[in-house]
Amino acid sequence: MAPHFTSSANDISSSSSSAQSRLANISAHMSPSTQSSVFTQDVVPQAPEDPLFGLMAAFRRDTSPNKVDLGVGAYRDDNAKPWVLPVVKMAEEKLRKDPQLNHEYLPIAGLADFTSAAAKLILGGDSPAIKENRVASFQTISGTGAVHLGALFLAKFYPRTANQPVYFSAPTWVNHHQIFGNVGLPVQTYPYFSSSTKGLDFTGMIKGIEAAPEGSIILLHACAHNPTGVDPTAEQWKEIAAVIRSKNHFPFFDCAYQGFASGDLKRDAWAVQYFIEQGFELVVAQSFAKNFGLYGERTGCFHYVAAPSGAEASSTATRVASQLAILQRSEISNPPAYGARIASAVLNDPALFAEWEGNLRTMSGRIITMRKALRQNLENMGTPGTWNHITDQIGMFSFTGLTESQVMKLREDHIYLTKNGRISMAGLNTKNIEYFSKCVDKAVRES
Ligand SMILES: Cc1ncc(COP(=O)(O)O)c(C=O)c1O
Fold first, then answer.
1. What is the pLDDT confidence band of residue 14, given thresholds at 50, 70 and 90?
2. Is the pLDDT of residue 144 over 60?
3. N or C end of the chain: which has fewer CB within 10 A?
4. 260 Cβ partners below 8 Å, 6+ apart?
């Protein structure tokens, strides 16, 4: 019922004088300078600085002409400069000329031409999952957004009857811990990197996954594992799939480097496609930041794939999509258009696609050349230790095995890398590789 007001002139004057005295009382208690925040130190403690951002800031402050940035997780050309892929320039040109282009909202699930091409890229053009209509794909805020949407969906809907944690490799991309922690999922790790061989601790990995409580969510890096650069072989992936199956675990693939790792899009998608062939129900977080150089355009995709079970699989995918739409709506409403339009233009045009494959080979090829040169230099100088892992590892990063004190020694030579000894191979080029190799040799010998 609507409120009913009756007041005489007297009522008004008496209520206005009491309002005035209330106001006077309030203003007596309100002095802006003495207001204290509800967010006290106990409630909101100072967060530690992100180690990578601290490193980047220190690099920027350094005025040495010799400085080398090996922290950055983005491709650099042989002049240590960001590289706009030629294919991206071509697609931008095409977009600019399109008279139909407007700036309307995209649908909640994103640009359909983009999400369907993205699904084909990672799941395979002739994927049975796509043919059988059992995939739900959502455009996301790059790979981070895809991991987040997946984590949020699983936090809300995955039946963790025994409160199973989510399992990450040790180590993993640091943000995995934050993203899954933020949605309230408990996290655990399985062994992954062997510090003695600087390769995969395969036995440890299998045992760790086997020991995880039945039905755990297992996060796997599809290729070019970050931060180690160490990937399982195809035979090892088969064993990983077998143990995940035997424990009814749920695979969550994070794919941030397809095509960027080996230069071959199909090869880098092999593990995901193998799991799908084996009939797993799974999810994939896909980033187009590295392989298109679209870092700031936040272009990514999240895919849910239902296990093959006839018509039921397709209706499961439809139901999952309906819930993903609600989650997406509450988080970002509609994904950003620009990066998706560029990626879509390339993915859906055979000539541009072929150009992109060439650009991918340029990036991965330069990184592989740098790996070979670094290993060769260290071996030629007889730098103590073994260096085969530099070329055995793949993708953007190498886990060098350099200790924290060696990393700090390198800092004195204006070389910036994270304390765990991870280097971004893209930071090396023909102009700084000799300098870097010599500084590593010195740091290793001095320690
Ligand atoms: C393993 C992994 N997943 C996801 C991402 C997400 O990257 P972006 O959000 O830039 O696509 C990265 C980026 O470094 C990564 O290394």
1. low
2. yes
3. N
4. 75, 224, 268, 290, 291, 360, 363, 364, 395, 396
